[in-house]
Give the backbone structure.
Amino acid sequence: MSDLSVTELVAGYGDARVLHGLSFTVAPGEICAILGPNGAGKTTLLRALSGMVRGRGSVRLGGTELTGRSPDTIARRGVAHVPEGRGTFMPLTVEENLRLGAYVRRRRTGVDADLDRIYTYFPALKSRLRQTAGSLSGGEQQMLAIGRALMLRPRLLLLDEPSLGLAPLITRELFRIVRAINEQERTTVVVVEQNAHLALGIAQQAHVLETGRIVLSGTAERIRADEQVAQSYLGYRV
Ligand SMILES: Nc1ncnc2c1ncn2[C@@H]1O[C@H](COP(=O)(O)OP(=O)(O)O)[C@@H](O)[C@H]1O
Ligand SMILES: [Mg+2]
C-alpha cells in the first residue's frame, strides 16, 4: 500500500496550467526525489500537495483525500511543507519559530519533548535558541525550517530545494540528517532538488519532471546508474 497517492494531478495559477496530470505513489516511509530543470513545476507540485495551490485530480494520504482541502486541514492531516526559501520568521527567535511549528497540530502535549528530539537532529539550533532566525547562517536557517516542520509530527515531509544557496559540506550534512529523520521517525519524504546526485543518494524512488509532466520514473539506483538518462533528462551528470 502507498502512503501518498497522486492521480492525474492538474494545477496551475489562474488560467495558466503548470501541472498536466501527474500520477505517482510513494510507499510509507520512503523518500521520493522530484528532479527536473528550472520551471518544470516542482515547486507547484509541492504547493498542490500541501493545498497552497488548488489542484484537480486526486491526492490521497493514507487513503484520505486531500484535494480541495485548505492548507490548514492538510497540515493537520500530517503534511509538513518546507517551502523554497525556507519560510522561517526572521525577527523571531529559534525557539519561537520551533514552537510555532506545533501550532497547527492536533495534540499540543509533548511539545517540550519534541523540541529536545529536534535538538538531537540539529544540535546547532540548541545553542542558538534565543537568537533570532535572521541571525543564523543559511544552513542553520534550513535546519530551523526542517525542525519547525518536524514539530508538526508529520506523516509526510515536503522539502523544496533544501540545498539552495548552501555550501556543499552543509548540504551533505543536511541530507544526512533528512535521511536520519526518515529512518527514525518513519516519515515519508518528498524532496525536490536541483542537485540530483544528492537527492538520488538518499531516495528510493525518483521522478523527473519536465514542463509539468513526469518524463521518467524509476528507482533512484537505476536513474543514478544510467548516465545517458542523467544527461538527456537532467542536462548534467549525476
Ligand atoms: N505564483 C505564480 N504565479 C504564476 N505562475 C507561476 C507562479 N509560480 C510559478 N509559476 C510558473 O509555473 C511554472 C513552474 O514553476 P515552478 O513550479 O516554480 O517550477 P520549478 O520549481 O520546477 O522551478 C513556471 O513557468 C513559473 O513561471
Ligand atoms: Mg522551485
